[in-house]
């Protein structure tokens, strides 16, 4: 696929050439196209060549990317073909780039496969938040599992300090104190009390 710009300043006959290939993949059961190489031509000769990386889509789709560039700040999808090539002297950037090499119908692009990587900033933030929530849940489950059981630490003892009622049938005699050496005292009875250890 060639884009011919003609003469631009000192550049005579500027042409940007996209070399596209198509391949059939059995796993996806369909053809995929990829941008294999980008060439810059002027003065009737190839002046710069860039190898394209990660620019591909199903053959029935188009490919779209906000920036396709040789610059690192735009993720450098275009790599100079060799260190000795003149391409290292060029900086190429396409903005709002969309291409489709095959199965074009009515002169319109098909549905676009976007270049946005799987680990975009929004997805990374969602993964980090999910990890934090997962750690909080794991900590809560850990605390619940290691919570001591009340049945194992439930101890009952007898208390000697309970003032119980007398078993006398007469109500008047029920509250009558026991006389011993001139001191008043009441009958002490035992009642169980419990301690809970947590």
From TrEMBL:
Cellular component GO terms held in the UniProt record: bounding membrane of organelle; cytoplasmic vesicle membrane; endomembrane system; proton-transporting V-type ATPase complex
Superkingdom of source: Eukaryota
Residues spanning the membrane: 118-141
Record domain V-type proton ATPase subunit S1 luminal: where: 1-102
Membrane topology: Single-pass membrane protein
Keyword Lipid metabolism: no
InterPro entries per the UniProt record, alphabetical: Ac45_acc_su, VAS1/VOA1_TM, VAS1_LD
Alphabetical GO biological process terms: regulation of cellular pH
Signal peptide segment: none
A single GO molecular function term of this UniProt record: ATPase activator activity
Record has Nucleus as a keyword: no
Listed Pfam families: Ac45-VOA1_TM, VAS1_LD
Alphabetic keyword roster: Membrane, Transmembrane, Transmembrane helix
Primary location recorded for the protein, binned into one broad class: membrane
Cell location: Membrane
Stated family: Belongs to the vacuolar ATPase subunit S1 family.
Name of protein: VAS1L protein
Organism: Bucco capensis
Gene encoding the protein: Atp6ap1l
């Amino acid at each position: 696929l060639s884009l011919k710009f003609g003469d631009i300043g000192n550049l005579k006959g500027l042409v940007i050439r996209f070399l596209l290939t198509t391949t059939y993949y059995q796993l996806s059961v369909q053809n995929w196209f990829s941008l294999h190489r980008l060439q810059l031509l002027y003065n009737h000769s190839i002046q710069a060549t860039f190898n394209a990386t990660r620019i591909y889509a199903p053959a029935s789709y188009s490919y779209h990317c906000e920036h396709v560039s040789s610059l690192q700040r735009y993720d450098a999808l275009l790599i100079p073909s060799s260190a000795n090539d003149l391409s290292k002297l060029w900086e190429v950037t396409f903005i709002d780039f969309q291409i489709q090499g095959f199965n074009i119908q009515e002169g319109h692009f098909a549905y676009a496969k976007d270049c946005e990587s799987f680990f975009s900033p929004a997805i990374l933030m969602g993964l980090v938040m999910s990890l934090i929530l997962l750690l909080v849940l794991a900590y809560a489950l850990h605390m619940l599992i290691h919570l001591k059981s009340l049945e194992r630490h439930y101890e009952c003892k007898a208390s000697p300090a309970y003032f119980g009622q007398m078993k006398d049938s007469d109500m008047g005699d029920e509250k009558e104190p026991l006389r011993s050496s001139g001191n008043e005292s009441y009958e002490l009875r035992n009642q169980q009390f419990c301690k809970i250890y947590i």
